[in-house]
Amino acid sequence: MRRILENLFRVQELDSAIRDLEERLAGVPADLAAIDSGVEAADRELSRIREKRQAQEKSRRALEQQVEDAGQAVKKHQRQVYEVKTNKEYTAMLHEIEGGKRRVSELEERILAMMEEAEGLAEAERLAALAAEEVRREAEAKRCRLQSRSGEIESKLAGATAGRQAVLDELPPDILAVYRRISRGRNGLAVVPMVGGACGGCFANLPTKLTVEVHGMEELITCEACGRILVWKPEGGPAPAGEDGPEN
Ligand SMILES: [Zn+2]
Question: For the whole prediction, is pTM greater than 0.85?
Answer without folding.
Answer: no
